Amino acid sequence: MQTALEPFRKAHAARNAWGVARLLSPIASPDNPARLYNFYRATNEHLVENDVRHSLRYNKSNKFSNNEFNAWTDIFVSYWRAVGHILVVEEAQNRGRLEDRQLVDRYEAWRELANNFVKYFAQDLPSWATVAMYTTAGHLRTFAIRADQQLVALGTSNAYTLSLQENMVPTAPENQKLEEAARIFHSLFAACLRDRNFDPDDTRKWGVYYMANLQFKTFFRLRNINLSKNIIRSIDAQSDLPPFDDYPKAHRVTYKYYLGVIAIFQEDYSTADECLTEAWDGCLLSALKHQELILTYLIPCRLVTKHRVPSQDLLDSFPNLKHMYGPLLSCIKRGDISGFDRALTAGEADFVRRKVYLTLERGRDIAQRNLLRKVFLAAGFDDLKEGQTEADRIRKTRIPLAHFAAALKMNAGGEGRIQHLDDDEVECMVANMIYKGLMKGYISREHAMVVLNKKGAFPGTGV
């Protein structure tokens, strides 16, 4: 055990946070694939606690207080036991014979490690152990999900098969082990948030956003998204956190992503646009999966806030998004209202699962705006007056309501209620467009005419 813990002693002496976190990882690094096996074989169940204590106490490079000594002893003893279950699972998977409860046992052993961080993190461990704490918590979530899957297969849980989609709502109404893990995450989050050390080089508050993000991911999977609001309120109430821009970019981008998604669910689209745009701007160009997740919500959000659709080049870079949103966005660009309705119905299952159906439904107004814009463009230009040149041409701004009615009926192609619109309904649709700011002008009922603004009849479209 002396040899097995030597890397820890060096990392601790150097206050190397990531070095300690890597030593407490359940995954062996490529340059040392036998690390877990060697660590586990360094002792046995009967001697592990004494061996760890002896290795940590009798060395010249580290000065531990009694409390810190006891904390690291319990952490490494629980880690050693967890490694035993990890190796059992790896060997079973290599043989293709994963037995009952092996994934559950692995989760429960790792949970004990996480509970030791809950026990000691706030008072007895140095603040730079924050990295080891939150990486341990991240692995606990993974192990909890796999344990719940095994319980489902064994028929010992009320949960159903979990979705593979990591960022959004799965089909399971209950996840026993993940709910247990969520309580541990909250305890660790609270420990970070309540830390009263204001020295930015020696505070546990650097773990706040990582633990917040981990809870968001967990609540989304548990279909308890409303609990995320408590996390946001807790952070907003803090006045002594380090500056947000000083946190690791990965923490900031993920936090802004979840803030944006939660804002969309609350129909606060301006906040959602702001947060998702910040997440997009901060996301690495190589992180295509993360960019795709952000765009999944930024695209519907921009439809509502700025009445804009993404470029074809952007969609071509993300085939999944192109498949999901492409037909709908094409109909919006063409002003094809009937096609929009069909595309919305065809993609309903995906849109509902991602909770963007109602947001996308508002895109119908943009499709309708684009159709009415085509009528305006088709009307052409007023005749030139004496002394005017081609540069002085202006578009006709008095459009009969009957022209808009004809366009709407032609677009319906003989399908649906829109084919039977009467004049009052057409007038109401145009009035709604004006009210929502998608058209500028007024309706002259006396002349059954729509009089449009000469300078920007359809704001944001160039005419």
Automatic annotation (TrEMBL):
It holds the Pfam family PCI. Residues 253-457 form the PCI domain. Coiled coil: none annotated. One of its GO terms (molecular function) is double-stranded DNA binding. InterPro entries: Csn12-like (IPR045114), Leu-rich_rpt (IPR001611), PCI_dom (IPR000717), WH-like_DNA-bd_sf (IPR036388). PROSITE patterns: LRR, PCI. Belongs to the CSN12 family. This is Protein CSN12 homolog. It comes from Polyplosphaeria fusca.
